[in-house]
Amino acid sequence: MKTYTTDYPIKGDDEKYYHGIFLVALYLLGVDSQGEVTTYSGRADTIFKIKDKTIITEIKYSSKKSTKTIIKEAFKQIKEKKYYTRYKDENPIYLALAFSKNDIDCEFREKLE
Q: Which domain of life is it from (predicted)?
């Protein structure tokens, strides 16, 4: 797991800002992706595929919480809202992206706990 800290003020103050940057990055890398994918109990932030592997992504921002806490909340939301239901036959991977005031962190999981 990598953490990235920056002294340069490339930061927004809400989740939408980071979600937009993530979608642009995927587009520039040529990755087929969908943003705000509607499920029966909410919307997954981003779902994309790399080498036929589906990745369900939840992006979170908090100016007060640690990135570790934000990541736990992201996986909890994926599980509670069952974003995986439509994709469970594809054995998806789950990605949590966490942004705080000065830190960026991410974690991949093959299964939700």
A: Archaea
